[in-house]
């Protein structure tokens, strides 16, 4: 399959060797190559520059509906580790790796903490949680009064904020999600165990002679 | 439901957190 030597490296500025990426993650080489098929389709949806920009990310997440969404923005920002407004292939694979079923819970808890710590202060603050609740209401049919939102925040912080200082630190978060494991469901994507069958065309573009599954 | 009083359980329902959508063609 070496004869295929595609133009991936030239067209994708953040392209990294699948063998290297597989060694850094829970993915096999074949799975990294299958992820490249997904990456190509997302990164070429608006501007074919080999990078995923925020608009392309949101289009992929919301199935071609153009939506501005606080939560999708936050995920994008965490995937965009180089903080340049775009996700390259290496960023994409390493960030998705956190969502792999085989990744230790501690790494998932770290990522989820960063997800909710929107302003990166090292704490999940009440005002951030309120902002997220209001954003959620904005995208759904749910209508809740400010009193009810405050009651939900009171209950949540009385459960999660052990030292009652009005913000949730990393240890408090870990204890809270350990007691409420359903909160970690969003941190595991079963799809990641099945990507070579979802994107079988990777076989035609493989640059590796002996595919490792 | 008790979950309805857990802000994070509500927030995690956002479509913006549903990365599974990336894999659905």
Series of secondary-structure elements of chain A, N-terminal to C-terminal: HHHEHHEHHEHHEHHH
Write out the CATH superfamily name of the largest domain in chain A.
EF-hand
- Can you tell me the overall shape of chain A? globular
| Main CATH class of the largest domain in chain A | Mainly Alpha
Percent helix of chain B, as a range, is 10-25%
Helix content of chain A: 40-55%
CATH architecture of the largest domain in chain A: Orthogonal Bundle
Taken from the alpha-carbon principal axes, the silhouette of chain B is rod-shaped
Which blocks of ≥5 consecutive residues of chain B have pLDDT under 50? none
Radius of gyration of chain B: 11 Å
| CATH topological fold name of the largest domain in chain A | Recoverin, domain 1
Helical run tally of chain A:
12
Instruction: Summarize the largest interface: chains and residue counts.
Output: A-B, 41 and 23 residues
The biggest sheet of chain A, with number of strands, parallel, antiparallel or mixed sense and barrel status, is: 2 strands, antiparallel
